[in-house]
Amino acid sequence: MEAIPREALEAVPTLFSLSGRVAVVTGGSRGLGRGIGLALAAAGAHVAPLSRTAADVEAVAGEIRSLGRRALPVTAEVTDEASVQAMVERVLDEFGRIDILVNSAGIVSIKPTVEFPVEEWQRIMDVNLRGTFLCCKEVGKVMLAQGRGKIINMSSVRGLQGRANDPAYPASKGAVNLLTKSLAIEWARQGINVNAIAPTFIRTDLNAFLLDDPATRDWVLGRIPMGRVGEIPDLFGLAVFLASPASDFITGQTIYLDGGWTAA
Fold it and tell me: Which of 143, 198, 204, 246 is most solvent-facing, going by the fewest CB within 10 Å?
C-alpha cells in the first residue's frame, strides 16, 4: 500500500487558506469581481480591487478592510497596456508580490448581428479578451519571477455555447477559454496555475436586464436542472479553491459553475 506522508494529512485543514497572499481582482468594484474579492479576503488574502471608477473601488476596499485584510483600491483601464503596467507597479510597491490574479472585468451587448456596430464588437473584445490578456501578461511577469501564482479567468457557459443576437460575448469568452489553456501549458513548469470559471446566469448588474424579462427568466430557469439562477456566493468556494494550495495540480481547466446547464 502506498504510504501517505503524515505531513500531507496534517496540512489538509490549511489547504484552502489564503493567509498572507496578495490578490488582484479586475472588475473588482461590483458583481462577480466584488464578490470574489471579498471571498478571497475572507479566506485570508490581502486584495487590490481594480476598477475604472474610483468611488466604487474605494467602497469595496472598505469592505475588504472590515474583514481584517489590507486593501489597495486601484483605478485602471484593463484595455490599456500602460495602465495595466502602472497597476502592477502600484501593487508591488504596496505589497511586494502578487500571488493571485482574477480577471473579472467584462461587458456584454445583445442585439441582432446585422445591427451590431463594429465598434461595439471591438469594445467587447477589448474588455473581455484584450484586458484578460494584458493582465495575464503583466502579472504573469511577476509570477514567473516569484516561481508561483494562481490566475483565474472569468469565462461563461457562452464560451462553449452560442446565443442568437449575441455575436461578440460568446466569441470573447471562447477565446478566453483557449487563452487559459495556452497560458497554462506555457507556465505549468514555472509554478503558475491558470484556470477559468464559467458560470451560467448569476444575477448581477451586467445581466439584470435579461433576467428581468419574464420570458427570458422562464427560459433560463427551464434550462438549468437545479431550477434557479446562480447567486454570487455560489462562486466563493470555487474561487477560493482555485486560488489556494488545494488546486496546485489543476491547470488549463474551464470549470462550469452552472447548476447543470452544460450537462443537460
Answer: 246
